[in-house]
Amino acid sequence: MAGFPVLAAGLVPEACVSRPTRQCILDAVVGPASNVAEEAARLDVLGATGRLESPADLAKALEFTKANPTNDNWLPSRLQHGVVNSLTRAGKYQQAVDALGPVKAGDSGQAQQIAVIWATAGDRIKALNALNGLGMGGAMQAMPIIGITFANQGKFAEAEEFAKQNLAMHPSAHFSMALGNAYRKAGQPDKARAAYQDALKAVDLELLGDRTVVTDFNLRDKAVLHVKLGQMDAARETLAKAVQAIETPSQGTTTEFGRALAYGFLSQFLAASGDSGIVLAKSLVTNKTPQGTKDAIVAGIAKALAVDGKTSDAGMLIQSVGPGAARDEAATVLALHYAKNGKLEKALTIANEIVGERQRRITCVSIAYVNP
Asked: What is the pTM of this model?
């Protein structure tokens, strides 16, 4: 296919791997487009990495999303997300909101996107106003995303004040867990532990009340919180219930793919909670585990290890995963870890040798841009 050497040849050129530069990588995987489809694909790659930076590319992407309604094609929706992400990263917050199009009444997803944009900008009032159209119940369910955005930015005072003013009547397990993770990352273990304890109380209230259905998602969160708090017996007990929920057809995991996806998320979250969580995640694999589910579990653990910088362990696990989406995702996470730490040659080697051809293009562009 003209314009996309990596899709045709399947590899980044060896000369580029041995002497990697951003432009060399981009020239290899994002060449000049020869038709409309290739131009859309080029914009998709840039949008996936939040790098739709030039006015010309932004205009082309927006034009494409308007000409091709998102309900007819998956690509315009991805391009719109790329535009919004790129504009937000560039600090062009009102343009990012405008790129989402007219506000649709009751559209929780769009409302939360707008709330995140304004929370990123530090404008709490506009973030809250974005949720007004969801009604009282919908706004209360969506509101934690604002506090989570503050926490993820390390704005702890704003996050805590937001929770005190807006989440006191309806505690959010997701907010408290995000706050705990942010404190842990910032080297404040005591505050992290207190936030995790608040999260555990909140998830228990959700499981006991009538506000939510018991699913593998909230049981997963509870198991992870027990691990973070060192409560391993309770973690194992909750994990067994999470597995039962995944295996129950009424929970929606009626296909092997659905079960594998749920197990993959479960293993990744557990493994990210520490060494004890990794042990629990590995216990999900038994002699009766289907290969696809086993691959998803192992890939989930590998992703968590790669994020944590345990690259050798992550690499060995990835090698044991069969070809497919799970392997590609884990290998991409590992490659990006190397790229962020200036090891571009290692990152590109992983992209060439492990990541499948369908994913490799976006992986390589991500590698090019995460390196300063």
From this structure: 0.80
